Amino acid sequence: MKMTFRWYGKDDPISLEYIRQIPGMKGVVSAIYDIPVGEVWPLDKIKALKTEIESAGLELSVIESVPVHEDIKLGKQTRDHYIENYCQTLRHLGQVGIKVVCYNFMPVFDWTRSQLDYRLSDGSTALIYDEHDIAKMDPLKGELSLPGWDSSYTKEDLASLFTAYKAIDEEKLWEHLGYFINKVIPVAEASDVLMAIHPDDPPWSIFGLPRIITNKTNLERFIDLYPSKYNGLTMCSGSLGSDKNNDFPEMLAYFGKKGHVHFVHARNVKLVGNKSFQESAHLSTSGSIDMYQVINALHEFGYEGPIRPDHGRMIWGETGKPGYGLYDRALGATYLNGLYEAIKKNNEDEGGHQYATI
Ligand code: DNO
Predict the structure, then answer these.
(1) Sequence-separated (6 or more) residues with CB below 8 Å from residue 198
(2) Domain locations in the chain?
(3) Which UniProt keyword terms apply here (predicted)?
(4) Annotation marks residue 265 as catalytic
(5) pLDDT tens, 178-237?
(6) Catalytic residue at 324?
(7) Is the CB of residue 110 below 6 angstroms from any atom belonging to ligand 1?
(8) Does ligand 1 lie within 6 Å of residue 102's CB atom?
(9) 13-57: per-residue pLDDT in tens?
(10) How far is CA 248 from CA 40, 284, 288, in A?
């Protein structure tokens, strides 16, 4: 596996220089953030991003994300225009040598939490999802702003999106995803860019909007929409693992052996209710996910692709983008690399005294 770190570009308070100093860090996961959703990413902007990252001694390993325009998810007439733009962006990314693109197909909202600074017993703060608090929230009232929520939506935009989604149930959303995938994957194949859909976070419907990338059966159904190595997955332990019915290490091993895992997000969550969870430190004993089993699965199927420590807590007085501070994510990377080294060495033949290359 190849350790990477998400970097939000020039506005990220964490510099590439700091990222490079994390032991074992090889690459960066980033995106072009100033192009409106649905427009083509210009080649020169992608090249500039890559050059900047490479001059800092790192690799641009993954683009996360190329967002999917809502008209595509809604199946509107205008979708063909946006899909063609999406394909053109993929061609540009391929031309520059980008190998993996992460994206999601969640209606309206990306990842959702009820609180961003919940104080854990050790004094650190973390993001949490409390089903009772979420039930009391009304995004249409516009009093809420959470990360993952596109702040460019006005109250009116949101209201009309919610109205449009009234006609879209899960089966319709599947249809629209199938339409998108059937146009995009052939271009990804020709451009040699592995597509890696991110699971819905949390993996259940929120605010009455449909969500479908949620469990093993649906991931399988997703791959069957267009069976190709290029039609793959981002396996996110925190997203899938927040549903107690998902056995994340088992799912990871299953899809990994089939060659569909192209990117891994490693994060631990502590399940504290039926549909409530707290993000925790990466350590297995801090949450409900056995991180040893996760890394063991990657080792078993010989995963060589990118992995990144996902959200961290805020520790040591750090402030910044919720979930995306430096310290706890750096600790996470080091822990994951440690697990990998131990598993690798344990599996080496007797007499092999090689140091693991992480
Ligand atoms: C949250 C992230 C997601 C992810 C997108 C991928 O921290 O994992 O926002 O980037 O869902 O499209």
Answers:
(1) 64, 65, 102, 103, 104, 213, 234, 236, 239, 265
(2) 2-346
(3) Iron, Lyase, Manganese
(4) yes
(5) 999 999 999 999 999 999 999 999 999 999 999 999 999 999 999 999 999 999 999 999
(6) yes
(7) yes
(8) yes
(9) 999 999 999 999 999 999 999 999 999 999 999 999 999 999 999
(10) 35, 13, 10
- φ, ψ (nearest 5 deg) of residue 288: -95, -5
Q: pTM of the entire structure?
A: 0.95
Active site residue 230: no
> How would residue 353 be classed by pLDDT, with cut points 50, 70 and 90?
very low
Ligand 1 atom index nearest CA of 234: 6
pLDDT at 93 over 90: yes
| Contact by Cβ (8 Å): 291, 339 | yes
For the Cβ of 64 lying below 6 angstroms from any atom of ligand 1, the answer is yes
Contact 32/329 with Cβ under 8 angstroms?
no
How many angstroms separate the alpha carbon of residue 340 from the centre of ligand 1?
A: 24
Give pLDDT tens digits for 274-295: 999 999 999 999 999 999 999 9
Is 282 catalytic? The answer is no
SS3 at position 209: strand
Dihedral angle of Cα 258, 259, 262, 263, to the nearest 10 degrees: 40
pLDDT at 355 over 60: no
Tokens of 137: 């929230």
Compute the distance from residue 338 Cα to the ligand 1 centre, in Å.
25
CATH number of this structure's domain 2-346, picked from the four choices 3.20.20.150, 3.30.420.40, 3.90.1150.10, 3.20.20.70: 3.20.20.150
Residue among 82, 324, 335, 340 flagged as catalytic: 324
Q: Is 69 a catalytic residue?
A: no
